[in-house]
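Re-run with default settings, no changes from the original entry. Doing this only to confirm the output is reproducible before filing.
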Amino acid sequence: MTGSLTDVRTGRHACYDRMVFDIPGMTTDDPALYWVQYVPGFAHPPSQTGIPVDGGAVIEIEFTAPVDDSQYPVRLADPLPGLDFSGYQTFRDAKFGGYYYGGTHIGLGVRAKLPFRVLVLPDRLVVDVAHSW
């Protein structure tokens, strides 16, 4: 992965909510460079300081791309800029967990522990979370 995170956007669909991470330079050959999993709580990994994320469950999203602060300014433990989850069936919250040891960490709060999928597309990483089981 050669690029940096330049934006995060979301969308509502009939059966799932979608979060898209824009990472110019990411290719479909990079699938080993991300981790997405449910976690019991979200924390800033080096310090293990807890970061509260609203929702019934939390998905931790980690990828090996730094944040381009000039295009996407975000600070540790803050909500991701520009996102409004009003009207979403599944998404509740999203917080920045920092960048360290080559990985950017995002905590995504969802309604419940629902099925999700991850897609690697040119220049972006996509996380879809279902509305139901």
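The chain has no helices and ten strands. Residues 39 and 61 are 10 Å apart (CA to CA).
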